[in-house]
Each structure stands twice: as structure tokens, then as C-alpha cells.
């Protein structure tokens, strides 16, 4: 991929407040601009110091005023993160100092970086592929040790190399066909149906194994979606608060208090879950409550695991049974009998649904609930860390590649000519190119880098 010539950008690259605040610059004028505002303490111009060294001096506002005494460093492209000339100013962590320093940079013709623009430039300049770029934001957002290790290895290219192996198998197949076609007089192994079958079987098997990593990778990095559902006043919000350890959702004795979904992440049973507290599932004439119920059903349909709450102190109804079956049709479901601290009502239990008894109020039974969740969400696999699919975009691209390979295999079995079969192989290559960013569209990359914060 060709380097992209861009204007010079700057942004604060650290969170505030903090002891140190870092200003990051990238672009053709980065070093020249810093040279006008930063004055090394030894009196020598900035560019007389070797790149990649730390230099102490004064940062000025460009009009003679000293803003801070800092350390600075610069590096020359293309051997940098973005592939361009870059510089960093390490200031004291004053928000006002950093803002005044940015204003001084802007006065020199530098502009504010957009969200994710530094990493986007790294991608556009061929320093990272799209999978590695996504790993940057996953690493920043990681909430588990496994997520950190997965994202760091993916940033190092582990998943990209795995995808490249599949890509290479399909490219070799195309190259072999065209070599035999274009140079029939050369001593080239003949292109046979067996050649195609072996290559397509190889690619299909690798894609199957890659797609099998999706759920495990998703749980590592972003957590599995877990919907807490049930009728109004079953204790869903109380359970959310109990699992989180603090009061995140409003809890009252009035049925229907929760009108919208509330999402938080928690580690339960060894798995990171995206807990979604939903509105109570019941028929209602209230348009706002009906909208909440619709969102609850949507959350249930998207869930990887469902916690279905019933109030143990009231009888289990036919409506409860219908809702439970709906939940089970969407995802693995744990039936939870809440309010075991209250006298129990006689229950007509659905077949095969003993459930687990808890009290979201006192915490009784939560350890057993965690054990059941662990059984439902336990992930197994021998795939090396960093080689797992971790988001829906990657999984969809891999699915499209697998579908194209399957169409090629079916065409081969149906007796299609090699050139017709290889059209589907080219479609598989295009899908894998979307995965790594080799052939990705501009609107897709823009959406990906919008996930980043400014300065990354």
C-alpha cells in the first residue's frame, strides 16, 4: 500500500488529569513545527539532536512565552508508527498547559487530529493492516487478562498471518491455473480437478476452524451478550446490581420501573459478560412500556446466554412458560427462581426446569448461579492467542469467504469448468481482503476508526 501524503495533525494522547500529558504530532511538518516552539536546554536546534532521543527544554507559545519545561522526541518516517515524521511533547499534566500548547501548534498550521487518525494513517501507510488496527482499540478497551493477551498478539500480526495462510492457498490455486493457461509449453504441473479439490478442501477446513474461534474471541475482548429477562417485578434490576456489586439500575416495588435496556460488563463464571437488564416482558397498553418490551425481546434474540428470572414468591404462570420457551429458542438459558428469602408459592414447574434459587437482595445462591453460567459459557479451543476472530466485521468477512469457497466446491462437483469455479475463488479472496483491509472500502475503514478516541 502506498504511503499517504497528509497534512500535519496533533492531539493530546493521554487521559487527564495525570502527572504527564503527551502531545502527539504526525505529518510532513511535525518536526519543523516542534523546532519552532521547542527550545532544547543545550541551545542546539532540535534537528541537531539525533532522532529517537529524549531532549529536555522549554516549550513556548510561539510569541516568547514559556508554557512548560518538558522533554520532547521526534522520529523520521517511514520508520514510525504512522509511517510519517512524528514528534511527541511530554508536558506536565495540566489541561490548561496542554490546551495552550495545542493552540500554539494550530497557529503554526497544524490541525486537530480526528478520532483514531494516527492509527488510521498507520493503516493507510501500510504500517498496520486492518486487523492489527482493530487490535489497538481492543487493547485499550480490554477488561480481562485474556483480552489483553489476545489483543496484543493480534496487534503483533498473529491473526493476520493465519488469514494470510488461507489467502495464499487460494492465490496459489489461481496462479497455477493461469500459469498453465498462459504458458502451455512450459514444464508446469498440469492443472487438474484433484489440484482444485485439495486446495479448496484445505481452505474450507482452515476457514471452518477460524470461524469456530469467533465466540471465544468475542468473549475475551468485548464479552458475551447476556440478557436478564422475565416478567415485571421479578427482580431483574436487583440481580444486575447484585452481580455488579453496586446500584446501577433503579429498583422499586412498582412493576414496570425499567423501561429501557441497561448494559454493564461483569466477569461471571470466568467469562466476561455484557449484562443487559431489560424491561419486564408483559402485555401493555402503555406505548413507552411496549417499546421497552420490544427492546427486551431484541436483546434476548441477540444474547449468547439468557438469565430468565421468575419470582419464587408468586405462582409460575402460563405466560412465564411461554416466555421461557421463547428465551430457550434464542440462546442457552438459566432459569432463576428469585426472592428465595420470601415464603415460596406453590409452583407448577415446566418439565426439566428445576432452575437455581437465589435472593438478589441477600446474595444467597449467587455462587451456584455463577457455576451454572460457567458451564454454559465455557470456551474451549487450542487456537494460539491472537489468532481468534474478535468482532462481527471479521466474522462476517470470514463467513463470506467460506461461503464462496463452498460455492466453488459445489461448482467443481457439478462439473463446472475451472474458470467458472475460480470466479468463486476470487470472491473468497475479496472477502479475506476485506478482513485484513487489503481490499476494504473507505466507508468501512471510516466506521472502524470512529471507535478510537482522539490521540490514538
Account of the protein in words:
With 456 residues, the chain is of the alpha/beta class. The protein has helices spanning 30-37, 95-107, 117-124, 130-141, 145-155, 158-182, 193-211, 214-221, 236-244, 287-302, 318-330, 366-377, 392-413, 418-436, 442-449, and strands spanning 9-12, 20-26, 38-40, 55-60, 66-75, 86-92, 111-112, 224-230, 262-268, 271-277, 305-311, 333-338, 356-357. The strands form 2 sheets. It has a 7-stranded mixed sheet. Strands 9-10-8-11-12-13 form a 6-stranded mixed sheet, with helices on both faces. The chain is flat and about 85 Å long. The two termini are 21 Å apart. A hairpin with a 2-residue loop joins strand 9 and strand 10 (271-277). It folds into 3 domains: 9-127, 2-Layer Sandwich (Gyrase A, domain 2), CATH 3.30.1360; 135-213 and 387-449, Four Helix Bundle (Hemerythrin (Met), subunit A), CATH 1.20.120.430; 221-377, P-loop containing nucleotide triphosphate hydrolases (Rossmann fold). The relative contact order is 0.12.
In short:
By secondary structure, the chain is of the alpha/beta class. 45% of the residues lie in helices and 16% in strands.
Question: What's the structural blueprint in terms of helices and strands?
Answer:
Blueprint: E1 9-12, E2 20-26, H1 30-37, E3 38-40, E4 55-60, E5 66-75, E6 86-92, H2 95-107, E7 111-112, H3 117-124, H4 130-141, H5 145-155, H6 158-182, H7 193-211, H8 214-221, E8 224-230, H9 236-244, E9 262-268, E10 271-277, H10 287-302, E11 305-311, H11 318-330, E12 333-338, E13 356-357, H12 366-377, H13 392-413, H14 418-436, H15 442-449
Parallel strand pairs: 1-7, 8-10, 8-11, 11-12, 12-13
Antiparallel strand pairs: 1-2, 2-6, 3-4, 4-5, 5-6, 9-10
Amino acid at each position: 500500500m502506498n504511503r499517504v501524503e497528509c497534512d500535519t495533525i496533533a492531539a493530546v494522547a493521554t487521559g487527564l488529569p495525570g502527572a504527564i500529558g503527551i502531545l502527539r504530532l504526525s505529518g510532513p511538518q511535525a518536526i519543523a513545527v516542534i523546532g519552532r516552539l521547542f527550545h532544547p536546554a543545550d541551545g542546539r536546534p532540535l534537528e541537531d539532536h539525533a532522532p529517537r532521543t529524549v531532549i529536555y527544554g522549554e516549550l513556548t507559545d510561539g510569541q516568547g512565552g514559556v508554557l512548560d519545561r518538558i522533554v520532547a522526541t521526534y522520529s523520521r518516517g517511514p520508520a514510525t508508527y504512522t509511517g510519517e515524521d512524528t514528534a511527541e511533547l511530554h508536558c506536565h499534566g495540566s489541561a490548561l498547559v496542554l490546551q495552550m500548547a495545542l493552540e500554539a501548534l494550530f497557529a503554526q498550521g497544524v490541525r486537530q487530529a480526528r478520532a483514531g487518525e494516527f492509527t488510521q494513517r498507520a493503516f493507510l501507510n501500510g504500517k498496520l493492516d486492518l486487523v492489527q488496527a482493530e487490535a489497538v482499540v481492543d487493547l485499550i478497551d480490554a477488561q480481562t487478562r485474556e483480552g489483553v493477551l489476545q489483543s496484543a498478539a493480534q496487534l503483533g500480526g498473529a491473526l493476520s498471518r493465519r488469514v494470510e495462510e488461507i489467502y495464499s492457498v487460494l492465490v496459489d490455486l489461481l496462479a497455477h491455473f493461469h500459469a498453465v493457461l498462459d504458458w502451455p509449453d512450459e514444464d508446469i504441473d498440469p492443472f487438474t480437478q484433484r489440484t482444485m479439490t485439495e486446495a479448496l478442501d484445505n481452505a474450507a477446513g482452515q476457514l471452518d476452524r477460524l470461524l469456530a474461534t469467533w465466540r471465544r474471541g468475542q468473549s475475551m475482548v468485548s464479552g458475551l451478550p447476556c440478557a436478564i429477562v422475565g416478567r415485571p417485578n421479578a427482580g431483574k434490576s436487583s440481580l444486575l446490581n447484585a452481580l455488579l456489586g453496586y446500584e446501577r439500575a433503579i429498583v422499586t416495588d412498582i412493576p414496570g420501573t425499567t423501561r429501557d435496556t441497561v448494559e454493564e460488563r461483569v466477569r461471571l463464571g470466568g467469562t466476561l459478560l455484557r449484562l443487559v437488564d431489560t424491561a419486564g416482558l408483559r402485555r401493555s397498553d402503555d406505548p413507552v412500556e411496549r417499546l421497552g418490551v420490544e427492546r427486551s425481546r431484541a436483546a434476548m434474540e441477540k444474547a449468547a446466554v439468557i438469565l430468565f428470572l421468575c419470582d419464587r414468591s408468586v405462582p409460575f404462570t402460563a405466560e412465564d412458560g411461554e416466555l421461557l420457551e421463547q428465551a430457550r429458542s434464542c440462546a442457552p438459558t438459566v432459569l432463576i427462581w428469585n426472592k428465595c428469602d420470601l415464603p415460596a408459592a406453590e409452583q407448577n414447574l415446566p418439565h426439566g426446569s428445576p432452575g437455581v434459587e437465589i435472593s438478589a437482595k441477600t446474595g444467597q445462591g449467587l455462587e451456584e448461579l455463577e457455576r451454572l453460567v460457567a458451564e454454559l459459557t465455557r470456551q474451549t479451543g487450542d487456537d494460539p492467542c491472537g489468532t481468534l476472530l474478535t468482532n462481527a466485521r471479521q466474522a462476517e468477512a470470514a463467513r463470506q469467504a467460506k461461503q464462496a469457497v463452498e460455492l466453488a466446491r459445489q461448482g467443481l462437483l457439478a462439473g463446472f469448468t475451472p474458470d467458472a469455479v475460480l470466479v468463486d475463488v476470487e470472491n473468497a479472496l475479496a472477502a479475506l481482503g476485506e478482513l485484513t483491509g487489503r481490499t476494504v472500502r473507505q466507508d468501512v475503514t471510516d466506521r472502524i476508526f470512529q471507535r478510537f478516541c482522539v490521540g490514538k
